[in-house]
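During the reporting period, our protein records have gained a structure token line. One record among many is quoted in full directly below:
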Amino acid sequence: MRHCSVQVRGRLTRSELERYNALIEVGHYLEEQKRYDLVAVVQKEIDVLILPAIERLKERSRQRDRDTEEYLRRKAEMEAEMKRIRDEEEED
């Protein structure tokens, strides 16, 4: 059984996480029984289950990028304003 990343697991809802853990447990049991044909089915279910969490993780990353862009824009505006004030003070 392939586990998803800790980051993806962190974005799972409580019910998704409970289902994920149950499917992993079933998959491990099937591996012990050497029922690899059924393990593949369980793994596909896990892959489908984690898709929304992957999207939430991507959205979180996109939001962080937007926040960084906004911060850098504001910082540049403040630096330009400070430069303008210094230039005005030097002229006086």
In short: The longest helix spans residues 51-91.
